[in-house]
Every structure is written in structure tokens, then in C-alpha cells.
User: Fold this.
Amino acid sequence: MAVKWTRAAALCMMIALAACNSTDRDNAVIGGAAGAAIGGLGTGTLKGAAVGAAVGAGAGVLIGRVANSLTHCRYKDRRGRLYIARCR
Assistant:
């Protein structure tokens, strides 16, 4: 049963990370590692670690995006294309 949960958690992590850029991926890895440690220590089970990793990875990406959005603004160039850069 533990092997099933481990495989499911690994599959979810791979799918979630496939669409991320490098900053999102870094935040997901850090959040996933912290979540796995907290979930594993808190419950003492592999299932708890897997759930903690999944929740931590998602939270890491979301927190990273919010933190990044506070320092970056959206601009339009002369052709009307949107781009993101540091706020002036």
C-alpha cells in the first residue's frame, strides 16, 4: 500500500513540475521537501510524508508566485504585447 502512495505522489509531483519554469520548479522542490519532512515527522508514516510533499510543493509554487508578483509588474510594449519585468 505504501508503494502505491509513493508512486502516486511521485507522479503528481512530475505532472505538477512539468509545466513549471525554473523558479517555480525550485520553489516546488523546496516546498515539497519541507512538506515531506513535516508530514513524515508529524504523522510518522510514509503516507503523511507523501501528502505533505504534495501540499508543500503546491504551496511553494503559490507562495513563490505571490512573492514574485509583488516585485514584478506587467507592461505592454509598442506592439501591444504583454511582458513582465521588475517594477520601476
User: Anything to note?
Assistant: The first helix runs from residue 2 to 18. The two ends are 53 Å apart (CA to CA). Strands lie at 72-76, 82-86. Residues 17 and 70 are 23 Å apart (CA to CA).
